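Q: Is it fine to ask for two folds in a single conversation?
A: Yes, each is treated on its own. Send the first.
Q: Here.
A: Result:
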Amino acid sequence: MVTTISSMVRRCHTLTTEIVAIRNELKDLCSVEDYRNISATIHQVYSDVYDSLMALKQDKLAALTNSTTQEIVVDTPAPKLVVTIPEDLQLDTHEKSVLEKGLNYIPTRKRCDEYTAKANCEKFFGRLRPQAHFSTNQDFSTNQESSEIDTSQTPDLSEDSTFESLKPKTSNWTPAPGRFGSVDYYISKYRSEVNKLNFKRHLVTDNLTPGERAALTSLRQRDDIVIKPADKGGAVVVWDRNLYLQEAERQLSDNTFYERLDRDFTVDHNKTVCEVVKEAITKGELPASAINLVWKILVRLDFISCRKSTSPETLEDLLFLHVTAQQS
């Protein structure tokens, strides 16, 4: 702020000096009458500009002072299109209403889990200090005073560095507190505010009506439908389960695009990829860091644990967990 004001004062002094010099030249070139007319015109322009700036200032000040008393209007997203297959598939009004909110809609919870909330905060804090540390160390372009660039700090764009970047990051290192005062203050203030929250208090507001809450439970318990997002357009498609399975079998039975296998060849394909990459490294066709291209083979996925997370559950999460539990 001080630097900005000092710069503006110097600029104002420079402009004043130039105006005085031009005024003296104008006096020498024009008659007294012409000089008075030109001066009057200039003063009128100054007056108009000043009035315009003052009006703009008053409008902004009025908007700021009245912002606290104005009613806050929350823009509700446009309802999604709900498509049923077949068209006469039975959905009541509340079920359609909750689906029209979209599968990414996040219903509010009646109570917040204190452990989960604080654990998420600590994970967030754990990412702040490394981000501040590395952003400071890697900022070699904006803070460089001379025109010469230190090549030792220039990112390595070679092929070997590209493969090296694929190496899984397993380090849990975090910079020690005290280096970034603003970050430490932010974390301390954040923890203090979170500790003031009453996690046992029930939430008063709810972004779903009682009918929509009941409809959400009803949709989770229905085993005669399959709910999926549309490929395009953001619509929600509700299939009759039998028709959905028939369509899936029809597409998979098309030998033009699919071939039926007796077993899962994923493990074999992974072994083949490993052998090809290792052979290329041995022959010198790939650098040693290319071993990072080989991923560990995941034999089994627990879909339910994969979908569950500490993030808020969307409608799609809630519906998916119930369907998966039924199939397991």
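Q: Second one now.
A: Result:
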Amino acid sequence: MTLTLLFKFVPQKNVKWKSAMFGAVFSALLWEATKHGFNYYVQNISNMKILYGSFILLPLFLIWINFSWIIVLAGAQLSFVHQHLDVLQSLSRKRRDKVEEEHVISPYLGVYIMTAVVRAFIKGEGPLRMEELEKTLKMDYGIMEPFIEKLLKSNYLLSVNDEGGLMPARETETIRVKEIIECFEIEQHDRSFPAVSTFIRDMKKQRFKWAGETSIKDLAESNWKSKTGNENAEESE
């Protein structure tokens, strides 16, 4: 009851009774569990009392005060989350949508994903798991998910085994970098400035000249060899 009143009236904002009780129950249960655990440690495990006698009571008391305060703060935080759960979930969705919007117009993330998958395939590591892909690209799966789904639907990737490992769906020599880029590019035609649209199309053609001549396997092997060469150079030093 004391914790409920504490979480209800101490904060400067209005806290609902239900949220205050939710955090209070959590803190009370955690406090009881911690109390029994701390008491068991002091009575049965720690030999500090034998060494220091009554002098050990003060530091033990301060440690217990610290634990108790952490539990109270955790309960208060949980009360806040309980009361504002809908708002927090909405903010999380908006943040994720914003990140996806920033990346979805960029075709190059698809090239990075394909290169990582093909490189693992060439090295004989088998299907690339999602955890390994996140580690390789240093990027959260939530950002890569729409790109991976697009590559799967476009028959560039296959999802195999129960872990959702990824491997090339076609012969890697036949997949051109240009194809991957075009798979994600959004064509925009501005009737107000046709000259600008023509210029952008011509610029893309020049950019795609190299991409059309390079397969994803060439890119993966080049990346792999470059990385291997750097590692060997570091070892020789």
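Q: Anything structural to flag on that second result?
A: Two points. The first helix runs from residue 2 to 9. The chain has two domains: 2-83, 105-236.
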